[in-house]
């Protein structure tokens, strides 16, 4: 674990190449291949082999989720990362649920109900999924589900969260970092900030 005392890092220098590699890691991690290629050509950096692995296939999976095509995302994921969804029940549930939500959004309620009974019922045997299933099924009761208390399930942010989770899982399945360097830097900065706030609080209370 990193030492949280920021004074230990006062003399640590960060080069331009370090910053560029962090940016490159973020772009490739999130499948911004074209932007990454432009970035590479303008900086003279070389693309690490690991970053280029299956980026086109990951992008297709990522975009399928963002477009609400969960079944296509499942199909592509099974091709690229066999057994991933079989071993990650939470992620599989999220993708199947996303398809259910898209059927509801399209007002295909009968089809949504049939899909739910066929593909989601088994998850109801697991306590942690029960509340979520109730929310999904409740969408069927509204003529305008976008205005229901569960409206967030139909939001672009919900799709984005599922897409991000799937992307991280696919990367981890390929033994690549699940989070980009930039995300890890932000996470570390957050931990350090929390540590400093606690230390300031202790110092204030000790006076």
Automatic annotation (TrEMBL):
InterPro entries: CRA_dom (IPR013144), CTLH/CRA (IPR024964), CTLH_C (IPR006595), LisH (IPR006594), Ubq-SigPath_Reg (IPR050618). It comes from the Eukaryota. Coiled coil: none annotated. Residues 54-111 form the CTLH domain. SMART domains: CRA, CTLH, LisH. PANTHER family: RAN BINDING PROTEIN 9-RELATED (PTHR12864). This is CTLH domain-containing protein.
């Amino acid at each position: 674990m990193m030492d949280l005392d920021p004074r230990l890092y006062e003399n640590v220098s960060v080069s331009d190449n370090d910053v560029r590699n962090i940016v490159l890691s973020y772009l490739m991690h999130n499948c911004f291949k074209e932007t990454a290629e432009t970035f590479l050509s303008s900086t003279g950096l070389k693309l690490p082999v690991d970053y280029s692995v299956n980026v086109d296939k990951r992008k297709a999976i990522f975009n399928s989720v963002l477009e609400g095509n969960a079944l296509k995302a499942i199909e592509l994921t099974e091709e690229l990362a066999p057994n991933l969804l079989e071993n990650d029940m939470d992620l599989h549930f999220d993708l199947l649920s996303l398809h259910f939500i898209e059927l509801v959004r399209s007002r295909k309620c009968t089809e949504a109900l049939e899909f739910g009974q066929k593909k989601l019922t088994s998850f109801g045997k697991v306590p942690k999924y029960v509340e979520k299933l109730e929310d999904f099924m409740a969408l069927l009761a509204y003529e305008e589900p976008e205005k229901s208390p569960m409206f967030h399930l139909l939001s672009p942010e919900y799709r984005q969260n599922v897409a991000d989770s799937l992307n991280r899982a696919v990367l981890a399945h390929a033994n690549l970092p699940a989070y980009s360097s930039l995300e890890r830097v932000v996470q570390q900065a957050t931990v350090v900030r929390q540590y400093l706030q606690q230390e300031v609080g202790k110092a204030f209370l000790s006076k």
